Amino acid sequence: MYAIVNIAGQQFKVAKDQYLFVHRLQGDEGASIEFDNVLLAEDGGKFTVGTPSVAGAKVSAKILSHLKGDKVIVFKKKRRKGYKKKNGHRQQFSKIQITGITL
Predict the structure, then answer these.
(1) Residue 38 contacts residue 52 (beta carbons within 8 Å)
(2) Which of 68, 16, 60, 14 lies closest to 36 in space, CA to CA?
(3) Most exposed: 3, 12, 70, 97, by fewest CB within 10 Å?
(4) Transmembrane segments in this chain: where (predicted)?
C-alpha cells in the first residue's frame, strides 16, 4: 500500500514506516501529524485517484527531528564591473516517519 501526498507544497510517494525529509513543519519533535491532501492511493492493486484529492484518505506521520541541510553558496558576479556578491543559505528540514495510511 502506498499513497502520493502533498506535504508542504511538494508531492511525495509514501508507504508505511518510511522516513522522509520535508520542508520544516510546525510542531514539536515527537508530535504526530496528519496530511489529508492525498492525491492517489493504491491498496492491493486497486488505485483510487482524487479529484483533486481522495475523500476521507489521510496519511499520519510522526516528527522525529528538525535539522538543517547542507550549505548552499550563492555567488553573483558581473564581469568587468567589479561587482561580486557572496551569500550562503541552509534550508530547514524536518525528518518524519510515516506511521499509517488510512483510506
Answers:
(1) no
(2) 60
(3) 70
(4) none
10-39 residue pLDDT tens: 999 999 999 999 999 999 999 999 999 999
CA-to-CA distance for 2 and 15, rounded, in angstroms? 5
Sheet of 2-7, strand order: 10-15, 2-7, 38-43, 46-49
Cell of 77: 558576479
User: d(Cα 23, Cα 96) in Å, to the nearest integer?
Assistant: 10
Q: What is the pLDDT of residues 46-59, one digit of tens each?
A: 999 988 899 999 99
Residues 3-42 as b/e (b if ≥16 CB within 10 A, e otherwise) read: bbbbbeeeebebeeeeebebeebeeeeeeebebebbbbbb
Q: Which of 91, 92, 93, 97 is nearest to 20 (CA)?
A: 97
